[in-house]
Amino acid sequence: MNGPATTWYLALAAFLFGIGALGVLVRRNPLIVLLSLELMLNGGNLALIAFSRHFANGSGQIFGLAVMAVAAAEVCVGLGLVVAINRRNLALDVDRLSELRG
Amino acid sequence: MTYGSWICLLSPFVAAVLIMFGGTNLSRRVAAWIATTGVFVAFGGAIWAFLGVHAQPGQVGEYTRAWTWLQSGSFSVNLELLVDPLSTVMMLIVAGVGGLIVLYSIGYMDGDPEERRYFAYIAFFVFSMLMLVEGGNLLMLLVGWGLVGLSSYLLIGFWHEKPSAIQAAKKAFVMNAFGDATMALALFILIFHTQSLSFGALSAPLSGSTANWIALGLLGGAAAKSAQIPLHTWLPDAMEGPTPVSALIHAATMVTAGVYLIARTHAIFEQARTIELIAAGIGALTLLVAGFIALVQTDIKRVIAYSTMSQIGYMFLAVGVGGYANGMFHLMTHAFFKALLFMTAGLAIHALAGEQDIRNMRGLGKVMPFTKWCFLAGALALVGIPPFSGFFSKDPIIASTLNIGWYGYVFYACGLIGAFLTGLYTFRLWFLVFPGEPSPFVREHYHDHHGREGAWTMLVPVGVLAVLATVGGWIQWAPHWEPFTKWLEPVAPTLAAAVPTSTQETVTSILTVLVGAAGIALAWAIYAEKRVEIPAMPAAQRLLENKFYFDELYDRIFYAPAAAIANSLRTEIEEPVILQGGTDLGQTALDAGGAVRRIQTGVLRTYVFFLAAGAAVLVLAFLIAK
Amino acid sequence: MNSLVLASTAGNIVVWIVWIVAGFACLASAVAVISFSNPFYSALALIGNLASLAVLYLLLSAEFVAAAQVLVYAGAVVVMFLFVIAYVGPRREEPWSGGPSWKALGAVLAAGALLVEIVLAVSLAAGGSLGHDHTAGANFGSPAYIGQLFLTDHLLAFEITSIVLLIAAVGGVILGSHTKKAAA
After folding, report:
1. ipTM of the modeled complex
2. pTM assigned to the model
3. Which of residues 4-43 of A touch C (CB under 8 A)?
4. Sequence-separated contacts (24+) of C142-145 with Cβ below 8 Å
5. Which residue from B68, B213, B340, B399 has the fewest beta carbons nearer than 10 Å?
């Protein structure tokens, strides 16, 4: 394969994942959290595709497509939640949305 | 003959089941007659079985097997009956006297709201007793043994609204359970050594100590069931039950089961001669103690109960020295006259609307002549005056003790003193209750039953038993004519040491009659003619009235420590540990949950943070592991 | 031979350049996603991220996945995001305001640790097996190839994914529907 070795792709995926994790941990707006979640998913996807190319096994790409579909589904539900929260005029702040406490 | 035995066994059972399932659909009368018919059919079966054994050459009887009950390796036990001379004698007694008593119950229990339950129980009892005597191996015998104890408990506590009856029932059952336990242990030892519970296994050669333990266990069971010292305190209290129950269970049949047991298992007792002699000693002791206590009793049924205890002491004495036929013969005559005594007492109690205190019953004979004469017949049989039946059965027992050693002389003396006491207490009872002018109490409370002293269902059995008490002993007159002993010879031969010479026999008979008559005379002098005053012996009086303090002793030894242990267990262990522990456990779970609850802050970012941190730790661990 | 080597080396250099550019764009847009205070801008940055990822997928001979990435992710998911962001309305959040709180510090540390570990784990622990690439066929990553895999080896995944999407659609509808009583 031309270009960088698989390890480079994996490192990039790791960085992407880390940045996404950082976003989930730091941001308070649930929409941004969901976006960061997308970043993490994409990082994982990149790793999957990289390995798929490395081992010349198409299953990785299939899995990547499945991850994409599931990510879309999850975003759909998550955004539905955000819309519902907003409709009830609650603050869109994950720190304040803490009624599910023990 | 085997059909006869099965009919005999199952007919009362069928009657009990019918009454049980019939419930209130049957009228009380019908239930009563079902039970009576069941027992009389059993008597028919018993006669059939008896004739069958009689017609057999050798007259040894046979086993009849239904199926194999238990099987474990080389050990197997069958559901089988044994029809042999000994069991047919018992079958005839149980079914015959039982039938008469059940018939009597129809009149006695008439009007009782729970009559059906009574008849179901009593039919069940007859079935259990028949299983006991017909059982073809020790396990069947044990089953019958236990069921008889159960029936006794149910019937003593029949009037369960009376707390005294419930307590008496419990006492009887617990003491019997003790005997059952020792018997079971004996059977375990037997299985361990012989892998069998058949009667033949008892003749297997066993080491001395093994035979001793087995015999001791069996003796424990026999003593408990037959109310011999030291397991005798339940019998007087058992008089709380209805009088027919006292007649059937605690006079004629159940309490004699111990005697039957020793006769049946005599092979092992002969191997453990010491234990057999201990049995005789227990019998001798009991007959004396019971005789003494009977002297001061004021309840008519208690006098007869102690008399029963005393007479069974005679039977134990007989089988203990090896005269099994003597013991069984006395069992038979005793069944006749003791049931008769109870039933006539029942007539008196019934006519006086439940009164049982003999101090109130003076002069009853004038208004109840039939009862008076029947009671007299029973009393004379009990004391052993010829030609009544007791004479023929009691004297050989006393005579048989002469040739076994120095303790035989002690037993002999006990037997004679016992005969004196029997005369004294029996006729004390008779003279206090029957002759003379009716007391004001009698005049006020006596009520007859349509002009007669009782219903015909009560009078007929009493009459029949009076006849039997008179002539029932004429079947044997040792040493001149002994068909009874010969009949039992194939299965329970008398030991040589227990056979007296004819001189000894004759001398004993004369002595016993004289001694008995002396007792009667003394009773007449004290109670009828009032010529002799009873000397005031307050200490002795108190000792006898408190029944030699056996109840108090057992209370001190067994009940008080057990109750103390139970109480201390409750306060030390049950309450703080178990009850409080359960509550504490729940509280701890709640507290732990409360602590864990605080992790659920509801803030999303905290959760994610923990997620990320946890994942980091895991990957670190993975790295290190690699 | 020389021309082949030259050609492959030239091809190689092109790939490297494309890789560096795409990688840089990817990371920069990712940082932008988590840094903007206006969620609208964050969503737009995500589009950039997804596009650069698509380029990377192309480099990895995953053509179909790259196309799907652009179509599904950038085309549908991010558009959904933009819809909702527009619906929710403008709001500003100062992500890094108030100085680094202990929570933020802990978050950075956790994320950093995770990152480092992943890189280390992957490069060290899997060292030997990542030596040689396997040769891929000519149609590796093509739609025909993906389609064949989906309908033979991974049929179950295919079907289940479709069910998951259905459930998510139903869930979305339920969550977004008007409630009977007025909003609390």
Report:
1. 0.89
2. 0.68
3. 4-12, 14-23, 25-29, 31-32, 34-36, 38-39, 42
4. C142/C63, C142/C64, C143/C63, C143/C64, C143/C67, C145/A58, C145/C64
5. B68
